[in-house]
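From the methods appendix. Each design record in this collection lists the tokenized structure first, followed by the designed amino acid sequence. Records were kept in a plain field format so they could be parsed without special tools. The example shown here is representative of the layout used throughout.

RECORD:
FOLD TOKENS (477 positions):
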């Protein structure tokens, strides 16, 4: 009898659900786009209304419309959602206010309890766990930022002085469980809302990047995962905590005892790709229609004819500044009269690749591990041009997996481990993760990108930083 696992992959821009068999084959999936983040000035960013839960319900129904197998053969649900979010919940399980996005500056500080309507404060995974199971439990591996958590044990501080420094009452916090363990089971109420059969176990994962690393099959061999999402980062698998690292930081892994090393990243990374497509507007849509292509496919075709380096058009991806450097701005620099829409599109792709090469190399150098290859995950990896740019910029083989939404695969692996389908992490990777194809660097392109990056691109931010600081003072005091 075949058995199936539902994988929930909640992101900033969409909620994806997929059904896998225990050999890692995707049976069907459904993606529901979230409503745009509500920004309030430079400090607040929220998911409107109850978008995370509503999109999950909608994705469930869309997925089950495609699922032709017996629901009784579904054995578990792996739950992964966006990290670094804060959910404030009322006693009845409903939100007291919209979920605070990871882009919200309030998350830089501990929660200060001031609203009597708030009963619990938790993460996105904690909130969805409560919705699905009624339990007040959450994975200990999705707490990033100012929470009263011991970084060594990943448990709430037992020392009252340390705990009280975070100003969050213990009674408002969920109980913590290990990743790849059961949180609870689907309630009758949640079953009616989602269509997932009642009684099915819901399994904890970790922060979404760690889950992605697991789903990409990362092992500690010099392979770097480049994760293309609203937040773009690069990651390596690790076996020890490195709290004093300078060019990367440690995340809890998606299985107990594992660590994920993560470089600096690009905030609103793939959202910038979406932005430039929208900016190019109706002309691109019309041209794509003539070639019977989507606008994105059309841009990939025409941008492939743009020379490496876009004839000196460079893109700096600071569309969303870091909270500690609010003067940062995204920029395109080096325009001349020959540049057109395809140059702008390719320049964004090249800027992403060069930024992540620099960040990943700094991480590898500090770890003392040579960068041997990369795996690229996320929807952006579907672009042949983008994959070739990554291979050329990094100068190493760039791989894609069959399931390039690695977080959904990682969620399925966590469920398979919790339910005893596989004995350990490596067995699950061997049984479920498969490579799709590999892009090899083109020698002359790699040499050109190396020259562009080391002689020009790496210095743009430094050269413009003082001007941007002055501009920020003019407009913001």
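DESIGN:
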């Amino acid at each position: 009898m075949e058995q199936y696992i539902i994988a929930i992959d909640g992101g900033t821009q969409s909620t994806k659900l997929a059904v896998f068999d225990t050999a890692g084959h995707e049976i069907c999936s459904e993606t529901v786009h979230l409503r745009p983040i509500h920004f309030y000035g430079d400090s607040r960013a929220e998911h409107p209304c109850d978008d995370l839960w509503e999109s999950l319900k909608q994705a469930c129904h869309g997925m089950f419309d495609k699922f032709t197998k017996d629901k009784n053969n579904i054995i578990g649900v792996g739950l992964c959602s966006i990290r670094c979010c804060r959910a404030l919940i009322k006693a009845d399980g409903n939100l007291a206010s919209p979920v605070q996005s990871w882009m919200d500056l309030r998350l830089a500080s501990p929660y200060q309890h001031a609203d009597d309507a708030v009963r619990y404060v938790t993460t996105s995974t904690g909130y969805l766990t409560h919705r699905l199971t009624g339990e007040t439990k959450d994975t200990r591996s999705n707490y990033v930022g100012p929470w009263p958590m011991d970084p060594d044990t990943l448990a709430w501080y037992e020392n009252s002085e340390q705990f009280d420094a975070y100003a969050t009452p213990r009674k408002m916090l969920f109980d913590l469980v290990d990743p790849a363990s059961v949180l609870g089971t689907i309630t009758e109420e949640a079953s009616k809302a989602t269509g997932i059969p009642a009684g099915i176990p819901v399994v904890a994962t970790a922060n979404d990047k760690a889950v992605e690393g697991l789903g990409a099959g990362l092992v500690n061999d010099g392979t770097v995962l480049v994760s293309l999402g609203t937040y773009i980062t690069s990651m390596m698998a690790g076996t020890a905590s490195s709290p004093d690292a300078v060019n990367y930081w440690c995340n809890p892994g998606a299985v107990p005892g594992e660590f994920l090393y993560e470089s600096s990243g690009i905030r609103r990374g793939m959202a910038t790709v979406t932005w430039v497509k929208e900016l190019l507007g109706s002309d691109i849509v019309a041209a794509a229609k003539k070639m019977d292509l989507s606008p994105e496919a059309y841009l990939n075709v025409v941008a492939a004819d743009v020379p490496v380096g876009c004839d000196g058009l460079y893109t700096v991806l600071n569309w969303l500044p870091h909270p500690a450097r609010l003067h940062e701005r995204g920029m395109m620099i080096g325009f001349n009269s020959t540049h057109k829409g395809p140059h702008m599109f390719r320049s964004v792709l090249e800027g992403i690749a060069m930024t992540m090469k620099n960040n990943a190399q700094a991480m590898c150098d500090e770890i003392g591990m040579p960068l041997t290859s990369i795996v690229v995950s996320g929807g952006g990896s579907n672009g042949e041009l983008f994959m070739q740019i990554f291979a050329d910029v990094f100068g190493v083989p760039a791989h894609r997996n069959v399931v390039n939404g690695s977080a959904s695969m990682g969620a399925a692996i966590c469920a398979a481990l919790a339910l005893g389908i596989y004995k350990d992490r490596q067995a699950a990777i061997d049984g479920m993760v498969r490579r799709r194809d590999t892009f090899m660097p083109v020698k002359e392109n790699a040499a050109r990108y190396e020259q562009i990056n080391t002689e020009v691109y790496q210095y743009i931010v430094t050269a413009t930083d003082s001007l941007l600081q002055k501009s920020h003072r003019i407009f913001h005091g």
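APPENDIX NOTE: The domain at 4-204 is CATH 3.30.420.40 (Nucleotidyltransferase; domain 5).
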